[in-house]
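Sample entry (368 residues):
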Amino acid sequence: MDGTFGPFSESNDPGDGSAYWAGQVDWPEAHVDTRFVQLGWRDVIRPDFERIWPRTVLDAIRSFFLYARAGGYRAVWKSNWAHAVFCLYPAVGLLLYLMTSLLPPLLLAPTALEAAAGLAPEPYKGPVSWAVFLAGSGLWMAAVHALKQFLEPKSYFRYLVNSWHFISRMARGEHGPMLARIEDCADKIVAMEAQADADEELVFTSHSCGTFVAIYILAAALRRNPDIVKRKGGFAFVTLGPAFDCLGGYGAQNGFGEAMASVARSGVDWTDLYSPHDPLCGGRTPPVARYAALTRADGKRPEPRRYSVRIPDRMPPEKFRYLRYRFFPLHFCYFFASVKPGLFDFYRLTLGPKSAVEQLKAWDEGRD
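Predicted structure, serialized as tokens:
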């Protein structure tokens, strides 16, 4: 297809992490113009990722404990064991890190102190042995920390430990700056809808941890305009590689359950896309049944349209072989174009000749 993307620009307004670009494609059926707006909050959560390591460890222990106490690990294990392994990974990794850092010096303390004592004259044996032991222990822990830093580009260990701290704060309603940014994003969506032409379709997509943030944002937008999802031009809500269990596992009583219920009540056309090959995705959990704080008057609300993006079929075999066990890069495959027709394709979703709702229904039936 003949098409172009316009220049990429970021907002200059302080406190606005949005970015903008445009695209157009000439299809045999029609000419399509799309405006893209990326809602950002990286600046808001940066402090969660820039704490000193001792503070990070203490906060992580608390985050993992709260998740376990709320039954998060048990619930996700029942839904999807592969995603449960991913959820356990940073907690187990932190435990192994602490054991590797602390156990050797503690277990070797008697031998090390005795050996160090033999290096000094009698009056100084105690102070010297303890100085040597503490220095050696410090060097050992520094070496373990350096190894962790060296492995970070492939392990994503510290990134995930920090992510769980951010998620924990979100789940408990304690992340004031992030909650404020959610309201700002809702304002932006409502303003864009008001300025859009009547026949323009709005497509609200999110990925990974952005999926639970999107629930909050859409719920806030619905408070401002309950009919936004029923606009004449159409409104599609799409969650890719969802991570609802990561936040919902802390309990939905501090806002997430009501936000999920608001989305469920709205009747928005919602498609939740997952892949069994992606363990970072918790796609087997029915989000409305698990987390929506519905009342008896609400009755039973339908789940989103849910189906697999079929990762192995969407890319060349050599690319799939390369990504198969590189789980973190694989998690972003939802944004790839598909090499086969009839399968989810992010470019066709956002720049295709069909409306997003019509296209998502067609893919659910295995056709373009």
